[in-house]
């Protein structure tokens, strides 16, 4: 989708173009045909005083959604329609919000569907009418890039498990980084063995597909500056392993690499935008399968950190591979580590499907992430990371158990498990190796009804990560 600028609406002449007009005081939406033959989609926005930033995201998407349903190829909009003084948004910010939202609404995963004769109803161009400042244009350009990367992340996550193995995920990372300043290194099984990543190796044992450890490095600043390390769960298919998932829960588990996909595309976005920061992405990639060679419930794995993991449930595999990735992150002496994972169904039970759950022991980081969530549209909500929960994941025959002792607080016990691999050893006190935030994106793995997003992967939290890289 292209975003272009025009002084006057009349310069948009195409018959497949529509004008989308936001009408205050009106409730419904209707399509009006002008004498000139031009179609105008009038979108009622009721009382403009009630507009919020969150509603604006949905409204922007609705514009594209409606234009697509009316088979338009171009949409003209007046920028002033979207400017609500009481929201105190800079023009750059408004441009960013509109561009990301429009791009996201213009995506659908059609790769495996036969195209209708008239072609897929996508918008080729949004023409923004009015006086547009350089500042606004800057926002539109950056937002367009971020929106594109969000959509590429969604396409990657939507790709069926049969066509998205750890090896292919690595190749995809290489492909999308081509032409950017992102350097991609892919470790194979032998190298993973050499690093003693017992977690990654253990989980991947049951699969005919070998594991990969994907490393993306973007040095946008001087090498002296400590990087932000982003860790993304890359389970290309999660059957649950020998603790096989019931059929209704196995559905959609090809998207269990959504965290990895988000990390890959956030870093590519940062590089495309030329953000002057250092960022490293780590994606442990495995397939979790039941077979004669699978890891067993009861197995004790020796993680890269040396800590042993007692596997009580082979379906709690994400935290096991992330443990090794978090240990590997230490090599970079990071200023911040953020891991992103479709980690627990319990997070969805806790917060619903409209926000990801975040965990950190640093109140300032928690506040920052909540703000970045509101700003980017990738909403997050905090859950506790209290030491009291450590009792629940004490191992009987290993140092840590990979599931809690009760059915309760599953998202929290998962986070507390990860925390064990970030904490300095107890003898040295309760400090951390580095500042850390864990984002459980299981709640946002797929889009929900009413968001004006296509069915399937939602692309969270690419927007938030890009904002983080920019601002941290
Ligand atoms: N990938 C799943 C979590 C998940 C569930 C993500 C639904 C997205 C949607 C994860 O590996 C898993 O299976 N977690 C278990 C943990 C349990 C065994 C302690 C879960 O949530 O049930
Ligand atoms: Zn699982
Ligand atoms: Zn999983």
Describe this structure in words.
This protein has helices at residues 53-69, 91-105, 134-158, 166-177, 189-194, 198-204, 247-250, 258-272, 318-329, 345-351, 363-376, 410-419, 462-471; strands at 2-6, 17-23, 29-33, 39-44, 74-78, 125-129, 182-187, 212-219, 228-232, 234-238, 278-288, 300-302, 308-310, 336-341, 356-359, 380-382, 400-401, 436-440. The chain has 472 residues and is an alpha/beta fold. Strands 7, 8, 9, 10, 11, 14, 15, 16 and 18 form a nine-stranded mixed β-sheet that branches. Helix 2 packs parallel to helix 3, helix 3 runs antiparallel to helix 8 and helix 4 runs parallel beside helix 8. The longest helix has 25 residues, at 134-158. It is elongated, with a radius of gyration of 23 Å. The two termini are 30 Å apart. Bound molecules: ligand BES and zinc ion (2 copies). One zinc ion binds at residues 235, 238, 256, 317-318.
């Amino acid at each position: 989708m292209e975003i272009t600028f025009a002084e006057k609406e009349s310069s948009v002449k195409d018959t497949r173009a529509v004008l989308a007009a936001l009408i205050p005081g009106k409730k419904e939406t209707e399509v009006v045909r002008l004498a000139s033959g031009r179609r105008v989609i009038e979108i009622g926005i009721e009382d403009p005083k009630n507009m919020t930033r969150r509603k604006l995201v949905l409204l922007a998407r609705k514009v594209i959604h409606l234009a697509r349903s009316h088979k338009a190829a171009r949409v003209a909009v007046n920028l002033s329609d979207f400017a609500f003084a009481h929201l105190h948004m800079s023009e750059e910010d408004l441009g960013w919000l509109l561009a990301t939202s429009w791009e996201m609404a213009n995506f659908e995963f059609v790769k495996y569907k036969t195209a209708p004769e008239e072609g897929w109803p996508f918008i080729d161009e949004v023409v923004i009418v009015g006086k547009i400042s350089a500042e606004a244009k800057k926002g539109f350009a950056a937002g367009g890039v971020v929106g594109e990367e969000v959509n590429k992340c969604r396409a990657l996550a939507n790709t069926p498990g049969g066509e998205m193995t750890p090896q292919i995920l690595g190749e995809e990372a290489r492909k999308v980084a081509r032409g950017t300043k992102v350097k991609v290194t892919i470790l194979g099984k032998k190298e993973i063995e050499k690093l003693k990543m017992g977690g990654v190796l253990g989980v991947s044992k049951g699969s005919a597909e070998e594991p990969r450890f994907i490393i993306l490095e973007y040095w946008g600043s001087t090498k002296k500056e400590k990087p932000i390390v982003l860790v993304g769960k890359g389970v290309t298919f999660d059957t649950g392993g020998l603790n096989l998932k019931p059929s209704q829960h196995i559905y959609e588990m090809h998207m269990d690499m959504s965290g990895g996909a988000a990390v890959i595309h956030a870093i590519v976005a940062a590089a495309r935008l030329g953000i002057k920061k250092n960022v490293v992405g780590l994606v442990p990639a495995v397939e979790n399968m039941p077979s004669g060679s699978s890891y067993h419930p009861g197995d004790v794995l020796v993680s890269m950190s040396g800590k042993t993991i007692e596997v009580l449930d082979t379906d709690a595999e994400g935290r096991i591979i992330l443990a090794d990735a978090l240990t590997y992150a230490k090599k970079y002496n990071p200023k911040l580590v953020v891991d992103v994972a479709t980690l627990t169904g319990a997070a969805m039970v806790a917060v619903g499907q409209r926000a990801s759950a975040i965990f950190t022991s640093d109140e300032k980081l928690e506040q920052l992430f909540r703000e970045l969530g509101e700003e980017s549209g990738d909403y997050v909500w905090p859950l506790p990371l209290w030491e009291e929960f450590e009792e629940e994941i004490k191992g009987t025959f290993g140092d840590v158990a990979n599931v809690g002792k009760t059915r309760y607080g599953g998202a929290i016990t998962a986070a507390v498990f990860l925390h064990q691999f970030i904490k300095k050893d107890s003898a040295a006190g309760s400090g951390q190796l580095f500042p850390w935030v864990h984002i459980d994106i299981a709640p946002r793995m797929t889009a929900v009804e009413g968001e004006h997003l296509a069915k399937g992967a939602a692309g969270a939290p690419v927007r938030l990560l890009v904002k983080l890289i920019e601002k941290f």
